[in-house]
Amino acid sequence: MTSGVLGNDGFVDGYVKKAGSAPFVFPVGDNGTLRPFSIASDQAMGAYFGVDPGIAVTSNPAGGNYGVLPQGGPFNTGSMVGDLQMVSTKEYWDINGTSPGRITLSWNENSAIAALLGNRALSKLTVVGWDGSKWVNLTSAVDATSLFGQGSTYTSGSITTVQEVVPNTYNVYTLGALRDGALPVTLVRFTAVGREGASYLEWLTSEEINSSHFEIERSGDAKSWQGIGKVAARGEGIATAASPTQYQFTDNHPLDGSNFYRLKMVDRATDGNDEPFAYSRIVKVDIDGRPDWAVYPNPVSSKLFISQNIIRSLASARLMDAAGRTVYTSDTVTDEGIDVSRMSPGLYLLKFSLTDGLSKSYKVLISR
Fold this sequence. Notes:
Layout: E1 4-6, E2 12-14, E3 16-17, E4 25-26, E5 29-30, E6 33-34, E7 37-38, E8 45-49, E9 57-59, E10 65-68, E11 84-87, E12 92-96, E13 104-107, H1 113-117, E14 125-130, E15 135-138, E16 140-142, E17 157-161, E18 173-178, E19 185-195, E20 198-209, E21 211-219, E22 226-232, E23 240-241, E24 245-251, E25 257-267, E26 277-279, E27 283-287, E28 295-296, E29 303-306, H2 308-313, E30 314-320, E31 326-330, E32 338-339, E33 346-354, E34 359-366
Antiparallel strand pairs: 1-2, 3-8, 4-7, 5-6, 7-13, 8-12, 9-10, 11-18, 13-17, 14-15, 14-18, 16-17, 19-20, 20-23, 20-24, 21-22, 21-25, 25-26, 25-27, 28-29, 29-32, 30-31, 30-33, 33-34
């Protein structure tokens, strides 16, 4: 626990730090009120500020005011992504850490949640994070049983992000109100693995409403992000796609060492508004070098990729099923890989004949 002033109601008016990955409720508060948050991430640290984030000046218990806190403030509550209608002007949390976790924020009567939502349903409430220039929606769900041990209402409750968040991704966090209309994508799964010096990303959606596209963003520190690719939504131009849909993206030139990835899931613009979007959870891939020979990923569901060493020396490639039947043959294999998406699940043998007369064989499992 870092230094702070213990409030009259048994909270810390300052920063609290935890060790270990067990769930933990941070007993922080300000201006005489306990306003806890929760995250299970190891070494997470945070504090609560019961003032307008657009001003970011809070009172000093010793008298007078602190300067703008934390670094990067103030945080303009009028600057937000298109799917947000309003951002709280009552409070914010500074939460720090490098390990991902689901963030839970609380509220009480001072938060004026009914006014923030325009007296709409609590389902319009969300957690938002300041990305350095604007507030971003972090898809969230209101807790049936709040951090205060009671059901969530307009006057007291808590809300938790659906996906894990690396706290350092955003400067500060607060509560926001979603505009009317559905979020673009229901993301079921987002994974990434490193194979032969490349990062292979896959994600699955269960529902897409007015979805436009996915932007793939990469970072070396989970703070500064760069767009590295774009994948069109399968339901682009269709109002609703309710069936499960799988997507893939390969980063053939990742950074040496740690690579953090996230998806920017973008909706189609309506009524002249900006394109609404939401971010996925963050996944990490460590690149430690390139093996001499490899096929990846294995197991595979859609595209099977081949190492450059094999591609450069290839005379022919043949894929056979468990009965010995040839289901694929070619004299060349490119960086685009081998499409196995229409092949039946099961164990296969992939055999390469090389230009030097040698051969290589690999067992490949197709799984969905």
